[in-house]
Every structure is written in C-alpha cells, then in structure tokens.
Design a protein that fits this description.
- The chain is an alpha/beta fold.
- Among the domains are: about 120-280, NADH-ubiquinone oxidoreductase 51kDa subunit (Rossmann fold); about 375-440, no CATH class.
- Helix content is about 25%, strand content about 20%.
- The chain is built from eleven helices and 17 strands.
- The chain has helices at about 120-130, 140-145, 170-195, 210-220, 240-250, 270-280, 375-380, 385-395, 395-405, 415, 425-445, and strands at about 25, 30-35, 45, 55, 60-65, 70-75, 80-85, 95-100, 155-160, 195-205, 225-230, 265, 285-290, 300-305, 325-330, 335-340, 350-355.
- Strands 1-14-13-17-15-16 form a six-stranded mixed beta sheet. Strands 2-8-7-4 form a four-stranded antiparallel beta sheet, with no helix packed on it. It has a four-stranded parallel beta sheet with strand order 11-10-9-12, sandwiched between helices.
Length: about 450
C-alpha cells in the first residue's frame, strides 16, 4: 500500500511507547463527577436539573434549543449536589453540575435505533440527542457536521485514526479493541449522508492495526465501500485539512470547511460513540483517554465517566512521582493546555492527560525572530507565521487577518521548529480572541 502525506509538517518525538499496546482500563468506582455544562463548540446550553434532584446514568441534565448545541447527560447515577462554576481543562471557570453517586446503576438510556432502517432525519436526531461531539478536537456538534447545506455534496467520509499528537495512544487502543464499533459508526454516518465511499486513515506507526480493521470492515461494514489508507507518520497528519489533502489530494480553501471539498472527517472515538448511541442507546457519558508522561509511574489508557476529576484518579488509580512532576497538560504536548493542578474534569474532547517531568517540561526563554523561514517551510496550512507574529506584535489585527491568522489551526508546529523559541502559537491564540472580540464589538455598533 502506497503511503500518503501532506506538504510541510514536522517530526516531534513520538513518545508513545509507554502506553502503546496497553489495554483499556475501565474506571467504574467514581464517587463524584463534575460535569461541565458546555463542552461543545457553539451556543451555550443550560442545566435542566436543580440541586437535590436524583438523576440516572444517561439522563439528560443540560440542553438548549439552538442548532449549534448538544445536550449533556449524567455519567453516573446519584444526587445533584452543586451547580456552580468550576475549573475546566481550558483553564477557564465554567458552570458545572456536581453529581454524587448513590451507589446504584440506575440508567435512563435511549431505545436502540437501527441506523440502516431509519431516515436521515431520525439518524441526525439520534446523534444530537446522544450529545455527540467531535472527540478529537474542538468538540464541534456531530449532527451539524453531518448536515451539509443544500448544494454541498459529500463524496467521502474519513475516519481519523492518525493520532499524530506525541504520547497519545487512545485512538490506537480504541481501534484495536473496538474496531468493529468504529466501523459500525462509520457505516451509519455513510448511510445517513448517502455516501458510497468511506476511508479509515491511520499513520504507519499503527500499521499493525490494518489486518484487524480489515476484518472489522468485512464483518460490520454492511457491504459499503470502506477502505484503509496508511499515511506517513508526521505531525499534524491528524488535522482534518491535512488528512483530506493526503487522502483525496483536495485542499480545503481558506476560510472553508471539509464539506467544501466533499469530505466529512470524524475521529474514531466519535464513530464508536455513534455506534453505541444506535446499537445500545447509550449517550456520550464516558470517555477514553491516555494518561502518561515522565512523572507518571503507571501510564494507562483509561475509560472514565465524563466529569471524572483527575484528582480522583491520583493516586488511587494512577501513581505519580510528585518529586519529578513539573507540568500537567490537558491534551497532547503540541495542542494541549497546561493546567495548575489535578482539579479538572475529563470532558467529551479530553484525549489525554500528561504528567511531565523536568526534562519534558523544560521551558526556554523567548528570543528574537532571526528570519530563518523554518516556520514557513513547515506550516501545513501554507501560512507565514513569522509575518503574522510581526503584525500581532504591532497590534495590527487587520493585517494579521489578511495574512491568514484565522486559517491557523494552532497545531504548534511553527513554535516547535523555531530556533528562537518564539511563542508563535500562543500569540496566535490570543490574537484570534482579540480579533473576534473586535469583530463582535463592530457588529454590535453597526446594529445600534
């Protein structure tokens, strides 16, 4: 099989060997969960329960009517103890529903639904009601992604199994242990969209999974045209725009979406969640993730209820060398966020938790750009990070936007290759927030 890839990118150390091949371990003895109300990209939702309410596992506890929303469900059975702001993995306090377990396993699941006998509208409604979002990135509502507007024809659905972030191995384990569910979910999405072609894309550092995926396609692919594409191991191969270019040769236009080139991309965890929502009626109430790093003495691939505090995993389930711990990261090292302590919950798009030691978390002082051009050569979006950085340093948001600020996917490749250790991606994130805030103020002023 010929391997494919995209232009640009980098090769950070993979550091996956500590959890590669480790089986999934299920966390079942959670006494309390802290469930963020808003875990998706889009409009806010609001609690449907109040303090003192008894809830069942799978019961809807937060929702709203706006299209760009998904509901949130109780991940354990118990009593609502608090509804208050708590720290989330993005370092921002957000409204959370605190549920204390009552020791029961009472459930309130949806009835199973045949994804190949129902209508498209019924399928999308089920994906929405199950609270499913993209589990590999920003938490985009899945039912919206699978609803292209009139005039946008989808030709291929891509299962994203690239998992290019260093350290993380949870997609690899999901495919290894639940490959049939992933293929089932892919087939359901293809049926709902009326798409004839599906592709499972994975990097060649996971080539050992190809035979198993092939068996899963034969058994649970429902006779659909689903193939496997092995990709060159390179960061950020798992970015959906890079994945589309590598597999189809098409390039998503500036400011565009995958549907603009006839593609839909979905993480393997999302596809498994879709299969569970149809075949078992289980909404998205648990999450698989990798916990590892140099300060982690017992690295694992875990499956835990949404809202499980990392603080409740340490040290009962995960042992940490406190003397060597220097940094805690929610996510991977390239796109994750450093958090101050363990008091944050696992949420729908948490793919990993890194417990890094001094060598891994070594910070360098930011220098001055030397105009070497490395960031431009490696940028997978074909941007000019150095020029965007200059515009932001000059507080010229309009110029930064014109150069391509909003097209940046914040993968961190430019920061990784910069010999002067310029904090490029961090500055771009702040710049995007400032630019969007400025646009909102201008829009509000125009309406007055």
């Amino acid at each position: 099989m010929k391997k494919k890839t995209f232009r640009g990118g980098a090769h950070p150390p993979e550091r996956k060997e500590r959890t590669e091949g480790l089986p999934l371990e299920y966390v079942r003895s959670v006494k309390q969960v802290v469930i963020p109300v808003n875990q998706h990209f889009g409009a806010p939702i609001h609690p449907l329960v109040k303090v003192g309410d008894v809830v069942k596992r799978g019961q809807k506890i937060a929702d709203a009517e706006a299209k760009m929303t998904v509901p949130v469900h109780a991940s354990i059975a118990g009593v609502v103890k608090k509804i208050e702001p708590r720290m989330q993995p993005n370092n921002i306090d957000g409204m959370c529903i605190v549920i204390e377990s009552d020791g029961s396993d009472a459930t309130d699941f949806l009835p199973p639904l045949d994804g190949f006998a129902c209508t498209k509208e019924e399928a999308l409604a089920r994906i929405h009601e199950a609270g499913i979002v993209g589990m590999g990135g920003a938490g985009f509502p899945a039912h919206v992604k699978f609803s292209p507007p009139p005039g946008k024809t989808i030709d291929v659905v891509i299962a994203n199994a690239a998992e290019c972030e260093p350290y993380l191995t949870i997609d690899e384990r999901t495919l290894a242990e639940n490959g049939g569910d992933v293929v089932e979910g892919l087939a359901i999405v293809m049926k709902a969209l009326g798409v004839k072609k599906g592709v499972v894309g994975l990097e060649d550092n996971k080539a050992q999974l190809v035979a198993g995926i092939g068996d899963a396609i034969a058994k649970r692919g429902h006779g659909l045209d689903i193939s496997i594409q092995v990709l060159t191991t390179k960061y950020p191969q798992g970015g959906e725009k890079m994945l589309i270019t590598a597999i189809t040769g098409k390039e998503v236009p500036s400011g565009g979406l995958p549907m603009d080139v006839g593609c839909v991309v979905s993480n393997v965890g999302t596809l498994k969640a879709i299969a569970d929502a149809f075949t078992k009626g289980i909404p998205l109430i648990e999450r698989a993730f990798t916990i590892t790093g140099g300060a982690c003495e017992t690295p694992k691939n875990l499956v835990a209820p949404i809202g499980t505090l990392v603080a409740d995993l340490v040290p009962a389930i995960v042992k940490v060398n406190d003397a060597s711990l220097r940094c805690i990261v929610a996510g991977g090292p390239m796109m994750g966020v450093s958090v101050p302590n363990y008091a944050f919950p696992i949420q729908k798009n948490t793919s990993g938790v890194l417990l890094m030691d001094r060598a891994e978390a070594e910070a360098s002082e930011e220098g001055t750009c030397i105009r070497c051009g490395r960031c431009m050569r490696t940028c997978s979006c074909r941007l000019s990070p150095a020029l965007i950085n200059e515009s932001l340093l000059a507080n010229d948001l309009e110029d930064a936007e014109a150069i391509g600020l909003l097209d940046c996917i914040e993968c961190g490749t430019c920061s990784f290759v910069c010999p002067s250790r310029v904090r490029l991606v961090q500055r771009f994130r702040v710049g995007k927030q400032l630019l969007r805030g400025k646009k909102q103020k201008e829009a509000q002023s125009a309406r007055k």
